[in-house]
Amino acid sequence: MSAAPIVPPTRVLAVASHVVSGYVGNKVAVFVLQSLGCDAAALNTVQFSNHTGYRHWTGTKATAQEISDLYRGLKDNYINDFDMMLSGYIPGAEGVLAVGEIAKELKETNKEQPGNFFWVLDPVMGDNGNLYVAADVVPAYKSLLSYADLIIPNQFEAELLSEVKITDMDSLAAAIQAFHEKHRVPHVIITSVSISSPDIPEGHLCVVGSTMTSAGRPRLFKTVFPSIDCYFCGTGDMFGALVTVRMREAAAEAAEGAATAGDVHVTSRASWLSDDAVAAVDLPLARATEKVLASMHEVLTHTKDAMQGVVDRTLAAMTEEERRGDKQKMLAGKKAAELQLVRNLDCLRAPQKTIEVRPF
Amino acid sequence: MSAAPIVPPTRVLAVASHVVSGYVGNKVAVFVLQSLGCDAAALNTVQFSNHTGYRHWTGTKATAQEISDLYRGLKDNYINDFDMMLSGYIPGAEGVLAVGEIAKELKETNKEQPGNFFWVLDPVMGDNGNLYVAADVVPAYKSLLSYADLIIPNQFEAELLSEVKITDMDSLAAAIQAFHEKHRVPHVIITSVSISSPDIPEGHLCVVGSTMTSAGRPRLFKTVFPSIDCYFCGTGDMFGALVTVRMREAAAEAAEGAATAGDVHVTSRASWLSDDAVAAVDLPLARATEKVLASMHEVLTHTKDAMQGVVDRTLAAMTEEERRGDKQKMLAGKKAAELQLVRNLDCLRAPQKTIEVRPF
């Protein structure tokens, strides 16, 4: 009957888009963070009526100056004491750089205790070969990689940032190695891998992650699981928010184990880097990935199961003429594909599904 | 172990302010609505770094046009199918009227099934004799009262809107009667009553509510409970969000009872008005008020208990010079008084405290 917090007290600055209706960006992230017990500060980079997948929307974007001003307001009031930051969609390169300045400042503030601040960077730029931001956003993100603790690009974004074309498991590993070695990114998860490989059967998805060793070498793990045959918006944002909380949880658990053994806490180290002796599949990042994917699988399954009902009810509420329109049918489908988060709190907090990572 | 939704599927349009850090306005309402199972559409009327109680803040306000545009975006995409609306702080009279237009349109859309849309109006204007909005906001709210289903003013706001000076229990009843008879507001709760009365012992608070009969006569109930001696921001917003969900829950329960007895569902009636035979203390509004106040008592108690710790940690993170400053001490206090919502999910969902309403 208890709905106790899942993590120790954690203040997270969540920087992403806001939509009035539906679930993408901070509308996903803030609820996920909060319902697992994090104190989420929500800096909204846009306020749109709905996500852009509906093709038509209204609303406004925050300028880079407005983003910086909001952070300054927090700082002036001594309420910028964040344990973590999760950044998602930011409109334009100047905005990306403004968010980067926030991360740099929080890193600098915590330089004596570098484990006290952890940045999860979701470099939202595009998917499946399509860039949906301005071209200058790519170098902006590239310039910030070395300040991130964990990056969670999809395959396309990983290619843009690593400059490694991902065509098979070897090039995938090479891209992750580039993040570790060239950009000194400690933790990497490639959230959606679509390559043809004997390891990935038809209709399956692959997620690959790695935490570097002290020498900057990758420790790769992967998991392959049946995909849900449906296009949902906001899945990347759900991944980001869940991994933020679950990484905190897994690192805190590892720290507790270390305390019992008289070792150094993983959370007192910069970027919560595990001992070199820890194998890939035993990393806090691996534990976090398993729980994140289990929650996502359950939420997406419930969403898919409810879709036809939402379409039927939406069309039933229209006039007969509207109901025949292709646009109206498309819109009913978009509404039905909105993530069913709030009525599936159990899936977020305590997923029953088991997903296990394996060595790469 | 279950975190099942508390209400039937309910889509709520929540119109209020947004703060990046802390808990007032939609930052309270959206989490409360969501964690009890409502699909909350969040239309943010401002984005500020923090609430204005800190005295300094940064951010931007939405114009009346921007509010209207956001709603138009929802309508164009057939995602304005709201069961309820909760409106809180809106900057300026034009904005208030823009939100009123949204309510009027949703009322009109549902005129064949008037129980399908319910507006909870929190007329945020001031407190304890101080108006903290422009003077023309008062007539703007007054012009909208007849479209509201439930209004939740504090004593000062009730006086402004009813034009009845509240000095004792009789004038309090007269103010509520004015809302029912003159403005045809079906449900009223005065959320904080501070009058000297033998019914309200020193250090206690009084909340009074009423659902009118079909003849527009009040059915008054009250509850008196020990106050928590501390000033918190966002309590009105927490009340509004909780009462939105609990009113829906109580009306659905009453409807279920009616279905068993072969009677008309309360939720199929305009404004969910109970039969005239239902006594004041048996109203769905009374049931809702009890649960709302129980949750609030628990959250405020936990917040107060944690305050000194937050102050100590905030001051400890400052330089020695800062720590001596009066402004810094004030700011640490403001931070410590932020509602502790996210780590007290149980208090919101399943309060243990019992609060009972009595006949007025």
UniProtKB/TrEMBL annotation, chains A, B:
This is pyridoxal kinase. GO terms for biological process: pyridoxal 5'-phosphate salvage. CDD domains: pyridoxal_pyridoxamine_kinase. Gene3D superfamilies: 3.40.1190.20. It is an enzyme of class 2 (transferase). GO terms for molecular function: ATP binding; pyridoxal kinase activity. Transmembrane segments: none annotated.
